[in-house]
Amino acid sequence: MKTLEALQDSSLDVLSLFTASLCQDAGRIVEIADHYGADPEALQAVAGLIAVPFLQSCNRQWAAAIRQDWVEGYCPVCGSWPAFAEVLGIERARHFRCGRCGGRWHAQALSCPYCATNDHDELVTMVPEKGDAHSVVEACKRCHGFVKTFTRLQGCEPEAVIVEDLAHAALDVAAFAEGFARPPGAGYSLNVNVSDGGAARRFFAWNA
To answer: In sequence order, what DSSP letters do the residues of 55-103 get, joined into one string?
Structure first.
């Protein structure tokens, strides 16, 4: 993270970095890191959070307009893959949750959000030997993707999704150990143009 200090006094194109964060363009973020001599993984970690407040605002504006029949594997607000799934209430309604904008949308049961297979022989559920029996990992042997799934009475608030995701990192570690991983990037590629009207801004200004 120390290498990111070089970005504070540079001519960093903040809009370019924000756009890369918004679109989850890992290649562009690596290019920016290489240009300024920053560590790519460190910049990836920070850049991934830059667009989150904006996306949270988008979800607050658009959540009511999400179609009830939306069952794609990616978020209808920002195109991200789900952070986890929630199985809610006595009716066991299943929803995906987005870790970037906090969005919620209907999820098909017994179906992989990444490759859309519904072949039961390709889908597995991993249950922790010790711990919360209501928190499991659902994985796909075809594409090797996985989703953490929580059974609870009520879903978490949009702004808490990213925290809930981090709080259950042990499930991610268990999935990685079995050869499963979340797909990189977005589930749906955004094509956006960002403009600030010519205003000059500094993002990395923690010493200002």
So the answer is: HHHHHHHHGGGS-TT---SS-TTT-PPPSEEEEETTTTEEEEE-TTT--
Give residue-wise pLDDT tens across range 110-169: 999 999 999 999 999 999 877 667 899 999 999 999 999 999 999 999 999 999 999 999
pTM score: 0.86
Q: Where in the chain is the domain with CATH 3.90.1670.10?
A: 66-177
Q: What is the mean pLDDT of the chain?
A: 89
CA-based max dimension of the chain? 56
Fold of 66-177: FdhE-like fold (3.90.1670)
Mean pLDDT of 172-179: 95
Q: Quote the CA–CA distance of 179 and 93 in Å, as a whole number.
A: 29
Contacts (Cβ under 8 Å, ≥6 apart) of 80: 24, 74, 98, 99, 100, 101, 186, 187
Supply 67's token pair. Answer: 């179609």
> What are residue 109's phi and psi, to 5 degrees?
-75, 150
